[in-house]
Amino acid sequence: EPMSGEIWPNSSTTITVMFKPEAAKNYTRMAYCDITGRETRLPLKIVGDGLGPKAIFSCDSIDIGNVFIGSRHSYEVIHENKGDIPIDLNLIQPESIFGPLFNFYPSEGKIAVGELQLIKIVFSSHILGTFTETFRFAIKGAPDTLALRLHGTVIGPTFHFDTKCIKFGNVSYGFVNSKIITLYNTSDIVMRYRIRIPDDVYGRHVPGDKKGYCGANEFDIAPNEGVLNPGHEQRLQVDFVPTNIGRYDKELVVDVHGVGEAILSVPLT
C-alpha cells in the first residue's frame, strides 16, 4: 500500500508490503510496477519465510517398564508453546494394538504464546506383551507433527508356591494321602486361578472300603480354583488315592484367567 499514486520529479514514496503466510514454508513472489510512459514494467522480487507454530514436550520418551495386566497407570507430560503464535493441536488416533489402550487428557486444545499445557496419560492393558508406541499430535499450520514415544511390557501376575516339588513318597494303594501347600500372590493385581493335574486318572475302581473314591480322580485339590488378592496367600490340600501300583511322576499346574494355561507347574511324585 498504496497500490497506485504519483511521484514528483526527484522525490520518492514509501510502499508497504504486507506478508501473511498461510503455512510454514519459504515464499517467493514477483511484483511489477506499471509506470506511465515506460514500455517495460519495473520488477520487484519479494522473498519471505513463513514461520509456523513451535511446540515441544517436556520429554520425548517415557519408559513405562513392566506393568501388570489389567492394572491402571497414569503419567504426565507438558506441552509448551515455544513459538511466536498460538498453537492449535490435536492427537492423531493410533491404529496399533496397544495404541488405543492409552488415553490422553486433553487430546486436543490451544496453547497461547509462552504458555504450558499439562497432559495426563492413562494406560490399562488386557493384552500381554512388549510394546513401543509413538503418539503424534498434529499442529495446525506446521508441516511436522509433535511426537511422544512410550514403551514397556505388560506382564501377568507374579505368584509362587512354598515348595518346588510335592513329594508323597511311598504310599499305600487305595488309601488317602494328603499334602498341604501354599500359593502366594506377589503381584499388585487380583489373580483368578485354577489348579489342576492334566493327566490325572479318572474312573479307576478303588478296592477295599474306599468306595467313596470309586469313579473319582486319583488326585483331589481343595480349593482347586479361586480369587487371590494382591499380597495374599491360599493354603491348598492335595489328596492322593493311588489306584495303580508303580511310580507316579506328574505335574500340578496353575491356569490364570485372562493370561493363559499352565503358567506355573510343580512336579508331583
Could you characterize the architecture of this molecule?
- The protein is an all-beta fold.
- The chain has strands spanning 26-33, 42-49, 55-57, 61-68, 72-81, 87-92, 102-105, 108-111, 116-124, 129-139, 146-155, 159-161, 177-185, 191-196, 219-222, 225-228, 233-240, 250-256, 260-268.
- The strands form 5 sheets. A 5-stranded mixed β-sheet has the order 4-11-10-6-8, with no helix packed on it. A 4-stranded antiparallel β-sheet has the order 3-5-9-7, with no helix packed on it. Strands 12-13-17-15 form a 4-stranded antiparallel β-sheet, with no helix packed on it.
- The chain starts with 25 loop residues before the first strand and ends with a strand.
- The relative contact order is 0.14.
- Mean pLDDT is 87; it is low at 203-213.
Order of helices and strands, N to C? Answer: EEEEEEEEEEEEEEEEEEE
Cα Rg? 37 Å
How would you write the strand order of the largest sheet?
4-11-10-6-8
- Helical fraction equals under 10%
**Ends: how far apart?**
98 Å
Q: Which segments are poorly predicted (pLDDT under 50) over 5 or more consecutive residues?
A: 203-213
Query: Which structural class matches the secondary elements?
Result: mainly beta
Alpha plus pi helix count: 0
Mean pLDDT equals 87
Q: Could you describe the largest sheet, including whether it forms a barrel?
A: 5 strands, mixed
Number of strands: 19
User: What global shape is seen?
Assistant: rod-shaped
Strand content: over 45%
Oligomer: single chain
